[in-house]
Specification:
This protein is an alpha/beta fold. The chain has 2 domains: about 140 residues, 3-Layer(aba) Sandwich (Rossmann fold); about 140 residues, Rossmann fold. It contains 11 helices and 12 strands. Helix 5 crosses helix 10 and helix 6 packs parallel to helix 7. The chain is globular and about 60 Å long. It binds 2'-monophosphoadenosine-5'-diphosphate.
């Protein structure tokens, strides 16, 4: 509360946006967006709302009826939200998930900025695009699907997806089959991954494993070598077990803060129609997540 009032003067014409999730108290998105509003002297506020899945429809319709302008959706709402939208953008349809809602003229318009976010993050961290690359994605939930499909849309030659629950890979395989990218499903274990790792340039963890201290994907350290790039969408802790092992093997590594930044910046632009102040948002995220003023 103290933090918000320090940022802005809320009054009768403040535009409200926010995020729905469960759990939601850990979110760094309010810090990132409110810093941007402050820097651009915009009378907007971004709030976090704890919403349970069974209440998602009522919450979104309520947001519309109360005149909110935009909502981000995070775990566990991204897939379910698709069926609640009045209109769905091309990416959200392809990814089967919505992470950004624009409320305009009484309509809920669903977007997905996760694919954009990962592509920008990989470029920023490793200085390459997915074009011509062979990518292994761990995870087939909302984030895994968006990332795998974005790789294919951007011209990756090969996409592998490994997931604990194999059936969740099916819709990804179906979507990638509409592109020129070769696709293969794998089990999420060292043996299956070892068979293809020499044909992989970039490994992206899109599972939630690593978020909790001590959590492990159970992969063997010998999978990682200096020719491999490894990106973990988890950003808290800053170095997960996966990134630690990958770095020890000589791989180039980066964590998910850059994806959070870029998907958030795109959402900011969808809502406000203003260019996102990237440096301000990056600094606010770093401070909120790591307590560092970088
Ligand atoms: P998000 O929107 O962040 O992708 P999600 O849709 O809930 O969240 O997906 C979570 C992903 O993490 C899934 O791929 C999930 O695997 P399952 O499809 O088998 O559930 C993966 N995941 C979560 N906990 C895991 C664990 N302990 N081991 C392996 N994979 C795990």
């Amino acid at each position: 509360m103290v933090q918000y009032s320090r940022f802005m003067n809320i009054n009768g014409s403040t535009t409200i946006v926010g995020v729905f999730g469960s759990p939601i108290t850990h979110t760094a998105s309010p810090a990132m967006h409110n810093a941007a509003f402050k820097a651009l002297k915009m009378n907007w506020v971004y709030l976090a709302f704890p919403v349970e899945p069974q209440n998602l429809r009522e919450a979104l319709l309520g947001a519309r009826d109360m005149g909110l302008t935009g909502i981000n959706l995070t775990v566990p709402h991204k897939l379910l939200a698709l069926s609640i939208m009045d209109e769905v953008g091309e990416e959200a349809r392809r990814f089967g998930a919505v992470n950004t809602v624009l409320i305009e003229n009484g309509k809920l318009r669903g977007f997905n900025t996760d694919g954009y976010g990962i592509a920008k993050a990989i470029k920023a961290e490793f200085n390459f695009t997915f074009k011509g690359k062979r990518v292994l994605v761990l995870g087939a939930g909302g984030a895994g699907r968006a990332i795998a499909v974005q790789c294919a849309l951007d011209g990756a030659t090969q996409v592998f997806v490994a997931n604990r629950t194999p059936s969740k890979i099916d819709p990804i395989a179906k979507e990638i089959a509409t592109t020129k990218t070769a696709f293969r499903a794998l089990a999420l274990n060292t043996d299956d991954i070892a068979r293809v790792i020499n044909d992989v340039d970039l490994l992206i963890n899109a599972t939630s494993v690593g978020l909790c201290e001590g959590e492990s994907l159970g992969l063997d350290a010998k999978l990682f070598s200096p020719r491999l790039f490894v990106y973990d969408t988890v950003y808290q802790p800053a170095e997960t077990e996966l990134l630690r092992m990958a770095a020890a093997g000589g791989a180039k590594t980066a964590n998910g803060l850059s994806m959070l930044l870029h998907q958030g910046a795109k959402a900011f632009e969808i809502w406000t129609k203003h260019k996102a102040p990237m440096a301000v948002m990056r600094r606010a995220l770093n401070t909120a997540v790591y307590g560092a003023k970088t």
